[in-house]
Design goal:
Layout (H helix, E strand, L loop, with lengths): L2 E4 L2 E4 L6 H6 L24 E5 L1 E6 L10 E3 L3 H14 L17 H9 L17 E3 L3 E3 L9 H10 L4 E4 L6 E4 L15 H4 L5 E3 L12 E6 L8 E7 L2 E7 L12 H5 L14 E2 L2 E2 L2 H14 L5 E5 L5 H14 L2 E3 L25 H6 L6 H9 L4 E5 L4 H7 L3 H5 L3 E6 L4 H5 L2 E4 L8 E4 L5 E4 L12 H12 L8 H63 L1
Parallel strand pairs: 1-5, 16-17, 16-18, 18-19, 19-20
Antiparallel strand pairs: 1-2, 3-4, 3-5, 6-7, 7-10, 8-9, 11-12, 12-13, 14-15, 14-20, 21-22
Length: about 550
């Protein structure tokens, strides 16, 4: 590894890093705007200028890569003067609208101006202006006055999403970021929401979050997106038990820096008016003890052959363990149902979206809770008299239930545990109000077998309880062996099972990748052989033609 010196500190850094990333490893921040670790290098904002021995001119840190013996200085008077000059140029046409700007409080331009700017402007002329608040598709608003021409938005779509959505039009002082509309260019991709986060200066803002609150008033909670099996790492930003936005967290093994728009904007059901507020018995409000006792009596009375549990694959690993224990105590089946077809607008893609729209399919599989077509047939045939249905609101289970919906609604002892009203909760004999992923703790296992933790952002409203607590109480009254003091205790019991399936999935992925690589190599060899044969045939034909002419 190269040994370099940054501001007098000798350090050893990984080969292939640029100076910005190398400086980060020892806690030195080099300001930048156009640079993003996931995007190509353009070196056009010039904010990351540094001094390097023995080069007399300042160099851009983003496009300078480390090599052994490099001596770098990031805080000399020459560098500071350059930063002040760059900030003065960038702010010449930038409006002084920080008090009303949606980006204020988390704006790279604002922070950098405060730290490295000169604090006053010599610009006395009229600022260049454009029309304001121009929609960019259905999700974003463009304020061109604020743009500093970093091209992050263009490069994000071109290189990450692999679509041409934005470009720059005109030149010099008139340069403007321009959305490409028509001719097959789609502004509303599944990743458009990332664009306002890569924008460092508030030129692109989100319609969903715009003018709702200030970022410093929000409470951040680290969690995992529950809307597909990728398990993107997210941050829930809430205020007074209301989610205002979902942001991505960096995890290079899962979602890198991004999340899809389905995960970003798909949190609205948490605050639905159809949330179930209290337990019910045959449509009438009841207290928790009576509801749980009644549910347990129904489950124990029907007999193992006519009792079943259907669990959504959005249950946490800890909840799935309790479901398994309750089923074992009752001697009945616990399963999910075979998934229905995928929404064509939410197809699996090259980036993050997965066809499996459940958060924890692999976790349930590790515990033996898998799709059971025979159970669906039994429900259709009317042999199931008591059914515990867990979270049918989720899209995957809701779609899977559709073929047997009429039969489920006719089950005499239907017990529903869910957070929002559905046809099933309306028809249920017992309703146990649960919570959404934002209101509970636990772990999900993503499609790669990686176990990731979700954290409660805020307590549930009304008399709803965490699903884990409901299942613990139900386990107690059904005689199941499940005396867990916390989610951690439950996780510790199944940790080995989860690690086992993670190892198996890794082996399967490696085998698949190896097979794909071998197939690609074979295809390349076949193509090369075919090309060689065609070339030889062409040469033979040419020689024959020459002989005939002679």
């Amino acid at each position: 590894m190269p040994k370099i010196t940054i501001d007098g500190i000798e350090c050893e850094v990984a080969d292939g890093l640029n100076v910005i990333e190398a400086a980060k490893t020892i806690g030195i921040h080099i300001p930048h705007f156009c640079y993003h670790p996931a995007l190509s290098l353009v070196g056009q904002c010039r904010m990351c200028l540094i001094e390097m021995d023995p080069i007399p001119k300042l160099q851009t840190a983003c496009s300078t890569f480390v090599k052994d013996g490099l001596v770098i200085r990031t805080n000399t008077e020459k560098v500071k003067a350059a930063r002040k000059a760059i900030m003065e140029f960038l702010l010449i046409n930038h409006p002084l609208d920080c008090p009303e700007c949606d980006q204020a409080g988390e704006c790279s331009l604002q922070d950098t101006a405060f730290e490295f700017g000169q604090g006053f402007s010599r610009f006395e002329e009229e600022k260049r202006t454009y029309s304001r608040d121009i929609p960019v598709g259905e999700k974003l608003i463009r304020i061109q006055d604020r743009c500093i021409h970093c091209t992050r938005c263009i490069r994000f779509f071109r290189e990450i999403v692999q679509q041409e959505v934005m470009t720059y039009q005109w030149r010099g002082n008139n340069t403007a970021m321009t959305p490409l509309e028509g001719d097959g260019h789609n502004l509303d991709t599944n990743y458009s929401g990332n664009m306002h986060e890569v924008c460092p200066c508030g030129a692109l803002t989100s319609k969903d979050f715009r003018f709702k609150t200030r970022p410093w008033n929000l409470n951040p909670t680290e969690s995992i997106c529950p809307l597909c099996s990728t398990g993107c790492n997210i941050q829930i930003d809430d205020k007074q038990r209301t989610i205002y936005r979902i942001k991505p967290r960096v995890n290079m093994d899962v979602n890198t820096w991004w999340i899809c728009d389905i995960g970003r904007y798909g949190y609205k059901f948490v605050h639905s008016e159809n949330r179930i507020a209290e337990p019910r018995l045959k449509g009438q409000a009841a207290d928790w003890k009576k509801a749980l006792d009644t549910a347990a009596d129904l489950l124990k009375a029907s007999g193992r052959e006519s009792t079943a549990i259907i669990c959504s694959a959005d249950a946490t690993n800890e909840e799935a363990l309790l479901v398994k224990k309750i089923a074992d105590a009752l001697g009945c089946a616990a399963a999910t149902l075979p998934a229905a077809g995928t929404d064509p607008l939410e197809m699996e893609d090259h980036l993050l979206l997965r066809a499996d729209k459940a958060a924890n399919t692999q976790g349930l599989k590790a515990l033996g809770i898998v799709p059971n077509p025979e159970l669906a047939a039994k429900i259709s045939g009317g042999s199931i008299k008591t059914l515990l249905l867990i979270n049918p609101f989720t899209c995957q289970l809701s779609a899977a239930l559709e073929p047997v919906k009429d039969a489920v609604l006719k089950i005499p002892n239907l017990i529903v545990m869910d957070h929002s009203e559905t046809e099933y909760s309306q028809a249920a004999s017992v309703v146990l109000p649960g919570v959404t992923w934002a209101e509970k703790n636990g772990t999900f296992t993503n499609y790669k077998g990686l176990v990731q933790r979700i954290n409660q952002a805020f307590a549930p409203k009304g008399k709803a309880r965490e699903d884990f607590d409901i299942l613990c109480a139900l386990a107690a009254v059904t005689g199941a062996d499940a005396s867990f003091a916390s989610h951690i205790d439950a996780y510790n019991e199944i940790r080995d099972d989860l690690l086992k399936i993670e190892g198996q999935i890794k082996k399967d992925i490696e085998a698949k990748e190896k097979a794909a690589k071998e197939a690609a190599e074979k295809a390349a060899k076949d193509a090369a052989a075919k090309a060689e044969a065609e070339k030889a045939a062409a040469e033979t034909k040419e020689q024959e033609t020459e002989k005939k002419e002679d």
